[in-house]
Amino acid sequence: MALTGATIGFFIGFGAVALFGPTAQNFVQVMQLSPTQVGFLVAIPMLTGSLLRIPFGAWVDTTGGKLPLLLLLLLSVVGIGGLYWMLLTLYPDRLGQSAYPLLLLFGALGGCGIATFSVGISQVSYWFPKRSQGWALGVYGGLGNTSPGLVSIVLPLIIGLWGLWAAYLISLTIVICGIVLYYILGQNAWSFQLQSQGLPRAEANREAARLGQEFFPQTSAVATLMGAARQWRTWALVMLYFTSFGGFLALTAWLPTYWQSFHAASYWTAIGLTAGFSLFSSLIRVPGGSWSDRFGGEAVAIMALAVLLIGAAIMTLSTGFTAAVIGEFLIAAGMGVTNAAVFRMVPLYVPDAVGGASGWVGGLGALGGFVVPPLLGGMVEWLGSIGYARGYAVFVALAVVSLALTGVLRAARRQPSSTTVHQSM
């Protein structure tokens, strides 16, 4: 029940990743946006969705995940509702460059739902024992991650049938329904439930341990953030997640523009390839979690990052359509499996501050979804059309750095267990 509730909450909130990707061309045509402006537009939901993961992930360690996740979804409702209002009142005739800042503002609010990831990760981690963390988090992340892919398919269909305004109205309705479902199904771990019933923290933790809970939080949000920040492995995991999940967010938003502008693909071909990327990368995260349980997160991450590197190199160097499709799906596989491996390692390295570590890793790591699209747009303005391909060199560099860091983590894991969790920067 708890896993189901958390997954539904994340699934609903995470759809904001594709808030602008499938509709970017509509705004480009009406507002005459430059490639860099398009990059910022598709990335802006990821800014709030990334940064808010840090405090909200830590907040879980003090109250449980239900209240933080509900608040994030409500903020997302405000953002999507604002976009709907803009389309009703301004689109298309009055939606010019002057409306661009307002569009970014509501996009940023809509992106708050993306931050549900770190809340749900912590919520799920406290429910499940160490031996099944990889599986549980893989199911949560994998199924929840399918949302952008489905949105990328459904949103254009709605636009084609009823118009752009209807797409955002239906999105708003779905998020509201998701809030109701999460409110009913979302459950905090035993220790939080017992404390809410009036039991002292120590007594609640003892009773929760008897019921099977293995991970317990620190006493405050600040303490859990600082505790996680003092451990150098947290920052290595941040970089890995910046590459894999931040990269996933960036490409989910950028790929429709890439396929249409560089390969002259039809609108529906671009949408289909983007949805395929998002769904494949999300679903492969589920077995990726099980592989991480079986073989270890570091070993699985090394293999996955190598696949990502090969895919990124193909897309950087090739201008052919078929090669680009192959490269895209290699990147998708590498990112999806690496995502699962990273969060398999978080509760092992930072068991006393899972929420704080999830906040840092999920928040700063996901910031790649905001940082990378403007870089890709800038490459196009700098190099011309070929910049659409050469921009993937960013992912080549990120994969190389992440491979090196994973090797360091793997070597450090062979050290005595007393340093595995508690060694500081």
From TrEMBL:
Gene Ontology molecular function: nitrate transmembrane transporter activity
Boundaries of every Major facilitator superfamily (MFS) profile domain copy: 2-414
Membrane topology, record value: Multi-pass membrane protein
Keywords of the record: Membrane, Nitrate assimilation, Plasmid, Transmembrane, Transmembrane helix
SUPFAM superfamilies referenced in this protein's UniProt entry, alphabetically: MFS general substrate transporter
Gene Ontology cellular component terms for the protein in this record: membrane
A Pfam family of this chain: MFS_1
Transmembrane among keywords: yes
Main location per the UniProt record: membrane
Name recorded for this polypeptide: MFS transporter
